[in-house]
Amino acid sequence: MNKDKMPKIHNKTEKPQEPDDDYEVVSFEEYCDKPADVKSDLLSLNDNINYRIYYESLKMPKDGNGSAVEEIYDREIEGQKETSLNGSKCGPYTKLPFAPFGKSSNKIRAPLFSGIIPKPKSDGESSREPRYQRFSQRRGTLQRFWEQIKSICPGMLGVGLVCVLCVAVWLVVGGALGGAWTEDKYRKLWERVHPENTEKPMTYYEMIVPEIHYHDHNNLSTKNKVNGSESSKKATFDSDEKYQRQMRPKPIQVPTKDDLDTNAKYLERTPEMLQKMCAQVTDDNMRFDCFPQDGSNEEGCLKRGCCWKLTSVRGVPYCFYPPQYDTYTFLNMTERKRGITAYYKLNRPSGYPGDFQQVCLDIMFVSGDIIQIKITDAQNKRFEPSYPELPMGYGSLKKMTYKTIVDSSSIGFKVVRLLDNVTVFNTQDIGGLILSDKFLQMSAVLPTDTLYGLGERRARFKTDLKTRQTFTLFNYDQPPMENINLYGTQPFYMALEPSGKAHGMLLINTNAIDIVLQPTPAITYRTIGGILKFYMFLGPSPSDVVSQLANVLSTPFMPPYWALGFHLCKYNYGSLQVTRDVWKSNRDAGIPFDVQWNDLDYMKDGNDFTYDDVKFKDLPQFVKELHKAGMHYVVLMDPGVSAAEKPGTYPPFDRGLEMDVFIKNSTGQPFVGKVWNRVSTVWPDFTHPNTSAYWTEMLSNLHKKIPFDGVWIDMNEPSNFVSGSIYGQCALEDLPYKPHYVGNEGLRHKTLCMDAIHAAGSHYNLHNVHAIFEAASTYYAMAAIRGTRPFIISRATFPWMRKFAGHWSGDVASEWHDLRMSIPELLSFSIFGIPMMGTDICGFRGNTTAELCKRWMQVGAFYPFSRNHNSDTSMPQDPVSMGAEVVAASRIALRMRYSLLPYYYTLFWKAHMHGDLVVRPLFFEDPSDVTTHDIDEQFMIGPYLLISPILWQGATTARAYFPGKQPWYNLADGTLLSTGGWRNVTEAQMVAVKGGGIVTLQEPPAGVVSSSLCRSRPFQLLAAPDRAGRASAAHYWDDGTSLNTYDENKYSIVNFTLDKQEFRSIIQSWAYGMPPVNKVTILGQKYPVNNVTLNKAPCKKPVCEFTYSSKNQMLIVYNLTLLLNEPIHIQWTIEDKFPKVGIK
């Protein structure tokens, strides 16, 4: 194809193109961005089809024979998001760049075509005429085809082809060269675009279908079904990428006036009919609550068309839904390669005000193992978060792991895993589908009663569905305790079946959410606003599920290396002198230590972007001293700004007013509450377009005074010491359903009024995502200010927080129970995709004890985010303050942690690149081992380290389970601990290495220890063979601080392998230097070694030595100076009388 003959693309500068006399093709966003005075028009449906078909032939890639590769291109067309106004009403829209003629980065892609901007014409000339002369079907067909053909087939061949095509067109159209588009014409169009499936029938619309039923014309794959016709048909999608039907569909039946009449009176089921239906619910576990609000009674229950039956079983509802509760009835459905769209109309009132009159269920096949499900109001726009944005290029559908079924005889959908035909999520006629203005509800039956996730809440890691429970997800300033909502909202669960197969489900809704679990097993989602938008991840392994979750939400941020060290803080050290004394005493005691923090007390009058120039007068000099020692400093930053300082004395408030960045009240004035500031507080609106610049400016001004390295964003639920505003009253929340756990004052309890105004909407809709916007602004501000990787810790969270910040579990108590609960919290946030997570070691509230603090330091040393911190009213609890026993235990545990920092760093790199877990539950080792499903007093660091701490008062050992069938070795001395099963371990045995792994270590220096001192020390390699005598691992390394090191190829990766009596290193990538290797230790060597070679030369002084320990059964090759940019090859032999085999 001659590119010079392409139409000119608006604002495209890739290659100069010949001017076109009458039009320019533009993308949808460019069309929308045109000034109002520019004449513009969108293509009609037929114009759009004509244009698309015409240019498909021109832009089609060619094979070796010059033929168009239509199958590939057609598949890519179907994979694109709809951006045309002709698309489905509830179809997804993401602002995408315009890719002309299917080309973008040398990859085939359909043109995201939307409209035409006519060029200016001479006076009196209609701008529409040239466009219709070229594209309208009413123009002469012969002339239209002549202009198309002559551009690609000049000469006699083109003339001959014109004649042939003219005759063909005459026959197809029946002699009507410019007439209406008949059913036969649609059929021919279908065959033209989908030559691989010419049997699919098409039809024209005899009447204009309302926009809410306008389906997928751009993809030319349309089928509607009307309620009552062929009700047994189903739409499914499976691995063959074909539509599985119980019968061949008939042409589209347009909804009639009666079908669309939502005001038609509902015919209530008779009492006799309802009684028969209710009698079918014989199992209490199948009762789904029909009257969850207060005031349930028989009269109100029956009025809703529900069942009423008393029961003595605690928690079982008296009022429950009958089978096939008929809130909605089916209207029609459209199938397409990448999904199904179905429409429903309201059939009966739900009992909640503002029922959706018509509903759109849109199911999108994101990839072979990810589904997006959206349930929306088909008539009215509702609040929907702008993220996550799916990748532009969707995953392949060739290897489908599921099929999705939508049945016209029932309401809802179900998802079936193809591997074993198990229904993993079934909403069809389950419970009651309620969709109203301030109450949305959907229930589903699950294949297992073992769930993990659904936070943030204080609970065991495994959520057991053997009992009914309801809990709320709504960001709330609440110290961790059971049965109440906490700081963050994470509406994601992972379900694990006894077979070891897993799936995950993520709800994207920013309003307050209730989760109801019952022993069916089933889950019910209730929310008070927005839409229901889910992502389902089909696994089938737990590691697959978290990887798929990362594909949608993005991967976690890559932390700086120093952030993996130990952190120390206390609320109200009281002065810089006390801060300095604590810092120095712990360093001098040999406590490995990297980051000093200050809480609120460093500020002047509790005001952000200030420091107390009396108590913390020399803070800038102290931070410089920390930097000189290779250490770092983190400051607290609350989201609230003082609103009561004198004008001109507090720039953060003055500048905020000037830039208009504060959250507003209902009258348009800054919303005023109270946090730590002396009198009053206002909050920056992080959705406002000016706030990012404002926040960067304020942090930059503070950084010029105090060169801090990280930011701790606290109180960002957001918390408020008054419930609402200190001026005026909040508007009535008027909730027909009150979430299960909120304060007596309603949603405003300890936060802002729900009618407070953000640039992006009301606080009612944005409360739960306030922290994300603050974290994003802080992240980008710190990247700009320091030019290195930001380090941010946030108290409040929501899905997608992983991209910007880590998390700590808040104000835990100094109690043994809180120590034990720190592990379920750590595991939950790990599967939520926030690996930089930890708990305040030794507890925050109350006074700890030496025994408790010792045990907490021993386990907390291995949290990814390891920080000792407590409140202003609690006794000092840094290791030195707690006495010699705590110092000794802390030193041992932290030195082991610091020796493992290269291993941790590689794990964080894998998390950042692929979404892998840093901390993981034991069932990741063997999901089919049901014993591991309940364990939450142990955890794994990556695939090779198992942490088994002592968590009970007075205990000297821990009962530990070693999963799998591989050997486990003690990291401390290399001895074999277990080959699987239960055993007791001491504090010296709490860290085990799994057979099959190779761990990269750096032994800390004696005396003062920090990560900067460790990074330059030689590597030591520890290989733990599996039963076959093999092991492997990868090691990643860069400078530890720079942005985008992987993208800019400023890193190195070396792989290590062990195969019985042979150890090798293999360079995968080399662009950044590494320290040399000075020792290689091989565990599990049952038989004495009599000879070692290094790179095929005998291991001899001064370049190599080796020793064999018969007690610990390990070979140590030491006194090495091996550069990792060169291959390493170590071999050894055992005494002749012993067999050369792996571990038995």
Automatic annotation (TrEMBL):
The keyword Acetylation does not apply. Coiled coil: none annotated. Keywords: Glycoprotein, Glycosidase, Hydrolase, Membrane, Transmembrane, Transmembrane helix. Residues 1-22, 219-247 are annotated as: Disordered. The chain crosses the membrane at residues 157-181. Residues 219-230 have a biased composition (Polar residues). Residues 276-323 form the P-type domain. GO terms for biological process: carbohydrate metabolic process. Residues 1-18, 231-244 have a biased composition (Basic and acidic residues). One of its GO terms (molecular function) is alpha-1,4-glucosidase activity. This is (apollo) hypothetical protein. It comes from Parnassius apollo (Apollo butterfly).
